[in-house]
Amino acid sequence: MKNLKIEIAPSILSADFSRLAEEVKTVEAAGADLLHLDVMDGHFVPNLTFGPQVVASLRPHTELPFDVHLMIEDPDRYLDEFARAGADWISVHAEACPHLHRTISRIKELGKKAGVALNPATPLSAIEWLLTDLDFVLVMSVNPGFGGQKFISFAVEKIKVLKTMIQDRGLAVKIQVDGGINPQTAPLVVAAGAEILVAGSAVFGKESYSEAIKALKEASKIAPKDLK
Ligand SMILES: O=C(CO)[C@H](O)[C@H](O)COP(=O)(O)O
Ligand SMILES: [Fe+2]
Questions:
Q1: Bridge-based pairing state of the strands 7-10 and 89-93
Q2: Active-site position among 16, 33, 38, 41
Q3: pLDDT tens, position by position, 47-62
Q4: Atom of ligand 1 nearest to the CA of 145
Q5: Whole-complex ipTM
Q6: Domain boundaries, the chain
Q7: Do 141 and 180 touch, CB atoms closer than 8 A?
Q8: Ligand 1 centroid to 167 CA: how many Å?
Q9: Is 178 designated active site?
Q10: Would you tell me which of 2, 59, 122, 205 could form a disulfide with 201, CB atoms 3.0–4.6 Å apart?
Q11: Per-residue pLDDT tens for 107-159?
């Protein structure tokens, strides 16, 4: 686990929506690895954000890969549109997909990286049979819907068990973690096996995005036993 490259995916949920293009350029220059775009429909989660038009309008403003987190019911209806809009990675929620294998297959047919997101209370068994087909698993460490929530600590154990499942099968599936990630929680999830850290308020809520990203990357190198 020592030489793992940890990637930071700032979530624009906590950015200034009146200046999104500028915010995205600033966070790219600050060292972000991916841009996390939270799509919410007011049904699957109790909040509304934006759809493919906003994704498409941001696409010319950055080279960062777009990591689109779909917190929507019936995501199959919109996969093609998000792919056309410029999504590079697409995650759907297991809880929103009765035919998860079909949904993941479609994302891959569209040439995109395919991920499944799991709510905190959703067991890993929801993706066990599908692991070989996935590029990444998004472990939610808050109940989805809002930025700035408190990290749910049992996500650490869930990531550990998932990491073992992935290793036991000899797979290269990446673990992404989303919700309440900051320099205090980052070392815990990285030690457990997470490689992509989504961070909204811990980046866009700070004065300097580059300092914030650096702090997350530095914190990721700390072994939890060395935490004060
Ligand atoms: O999917 C999400 C919420 O549903 C966001 O990506 C997440 O909450 C980021 O915000 P923060 O880092 O402030 O917790
Ligand atoms: Fe997210």
A1: unpaired
A2: 38
A3: 999 999 999 999 999 9
A4: 4
A5: 0.98
A6: 7-226
A7: yes
A8: 27
A9: yes
A10: 205
A11: 999 999 999 999 999 999 999 999 999 999 999 999 999 999 999 999 999 99
